Amino acid sequence: xxxxxxxxxxxxxxxxxxxxxxxxxxxxxxxxxxxxxxxxxxxxxxxxxxxxxxxxxxxxxxxxxxxxxxxxxxxxxxxxxxxxxxxxxxxxxxxxxxxxxxxxxxxxxxxxxxxxxxxxxxxxxxxxxxxxxxxxxxxxxxxxxxxxxxxxxxxxxxxxxxxxxxxxxxxxxxxxxxxxxxxxxxxxxxxxxxxxxxxxxxxxxxxxxxxxxxxxxxxxxxxxxxxxxxxxxxxxxxxxxxxxxxxxxxxxxxxxxxxxxxxxxxxxxxxxxxxxxxxxxxxxxxxxxxxxxxxxxxxxxxxxxxxxxxxxxxxxxxxxxxxxxxxxxxxxxxxxxxxxxxxxxxxxxxxxxxxxxxxxxxxxxxxxxxxxxxxxxxxxxxxxxxxxxxxxxxxxxxxxxxxxxxxxxxxxxxxxxxxxxxxxxxxxxxxxxxxxxxxxxxxxxxxxxxxxxxxxxxxxxxxxxxxxxxxxxxxxxxxxxxxxxxxxxxxxxxxxxxxxxxxxxxxxxxxxxxxxxxxxxxxxxxxxxxxxxxxxxxxxxxxxxxxxx
Length: 549
Fold this sequence. Notes:
It is built from 23 helices and no strands. It has helices spanning about 5-35, 40-60, 60-75, 80-115, 120-130, 130-145, 150-180, 185-225, 235-255, 255-265, 270, 280-295, 300-310, 310-320, 325-350, 355-360, 365-390, 395-420, 425-450, 460-480, 490-515, 520-525, 525-540. α6 (about 130-145) runs parallel beside α8. It is globular. The protein starts with 6 loop residues before the first helix and ends in a 10-residue tail after the last helix. Residues about 225-230 and about 540-549 have low confidence and may be disordered.
């Protein structure tokens, strides 16, 4: 039997699935780094980023739109219309999957040779193309299940997909390495793992679809002749697609910002840095940027975005009834949570970037790019959260417009900075893009509500960041310099742990001692954070009326 999931449970399922998927994606890159040289890593990066970019274009936003349309029809007692929407979505997914797969197979050599300037990447691009046959359909099915409040189907399929992808990608890449097929085939074998992942996810979704179909039939039989099931929907596909695209297009453009940046950076890296790096150095930096920096930079946003997502329905509900005081309170709380939780992860990964890179990968090359890109995720988190606040206020077109402006800023600043600073110019241009979008978002939000994130406490917060990051960097440097006589990987592990403990410990302590975090803040945080911070607040001598009871 298939059971519906509550809002909180559904949010936790999807957040956990995203977390597992992100970490599995990183662990795929680690063995790949050992098996490839700068050419093979670059081939994989180019293929993987164009695949992820096309995947967002084909599916991003549409599952959310389907979820909304299906849930509304069931709420109105029109299940036949919901089924009609589901069929239209599946047809769109199937056609889109075939079209994009064929285009990618045909144009892979042109893209690899003339755009990315990595001719050997065409094999990897073609190897990953068949995965796009299934993923658009999978995305439509996930949207339908979310609309029916069965979040577990999408979450489990995502985890199965990642497990199969990582296992087959690493296994096939190792086989290609053992048979000495060369770097092009190793990269192609690694990307082909996505095909196995998509097949696994599709089978999981089919299994859930059969269970749900049987459950619907059982419920209909138990209810007898329901008036909801007396006729078939004649809702035309054209009307469905118009409604679908009206909802999804702004979400697609907004959600593709980060992946477009990664796609742009890897596709045009050789061209943009032609006057800065020699050919061999450019290949190496592209490898480090894609395999190491972009993979690790995906970690800091996870917790912050997952925490903020649970607040979105509350903001939407308050805005719908024009309870602007509650909208102000909840939006400020969301931003406060992501500031307090997202920044320390970025902070630790930035100051310990060299040790983290040395621990996870074959060498410390590219650790500077890891540090720079990870530091910029602070603004990425701010951008993404302010996007969701605007969307919750029923203004999805504003984040879309700001994302388009940000992309223009990204392209222009990359053209200026990349020839001057190389990979750091490219990363800096991304950070400027995130900052521009976040600023535009906040300007619009403040036209309707007054955000109170930290108020007069920003100076204390800045001091907290400066002290915690400086101490963490010093500890990491001292560990790497003075710990000897043991395997280098253990040294890096000790450095990471020590720097993390010192940075995080000082960060939390200074937030409390400098009164950046107040008792009122703590009482509004999610339960896990309250349980962590309440004892520290009591130790600091600022017990509130609720905590003293």
